[in-house]
């Protein structure tokens, strides 16, 4: 649970780097996804690892879409993939 909260907080920090007009959409999108997966069994490490990897990869995709340097996601990478 703690890892998910840290990942969510970092995703919201990355959302702040996006253009102002798109921040609300991506903040809402992130919240909905984290809420949808809150009931995942913590003992199912394969599913959790997949979700964290998708979190990181999707964040990179969004950063690239808006030409934000993906090095901004290094902390998220450490949380999700490290």
From TrEMBL:
Species in which this protein is naturally found: Stylosanthes scabra
Top-level taxon of origin: Eukaryota
Protein name as catalogued: Complex 1 LYR protein domain-containing protein
Boundaries of every Complex 1 LYR protein domain copy: 5-56
Stored PANTHER family: OS01G0342800 PROTEIN
Family membership noted in the UniProt record: Belongs to the complex I LYR family. LYRM9 subfamily.
CDD domains attached to this UniProt entry: Complex1_LYR_LYRM9
């Amino acid at each position: 649970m703690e890892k998910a909260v840290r990942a969510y907080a970092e995703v919201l920090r990355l959302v702040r780097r996006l253009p102002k007009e798109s921040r609300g959409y991506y903040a809402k999108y992130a919240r909905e996804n984290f809420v949808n997966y809150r009931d995942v069994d913590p003992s199912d490490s394969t599913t959790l690892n997949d979700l964290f990897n998708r979190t990181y990869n999707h964040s990179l995709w969004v950063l690239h879409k808006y030409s934000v340097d993906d090095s901004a996601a290094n902390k998220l990478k450490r949380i999700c993939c490290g």
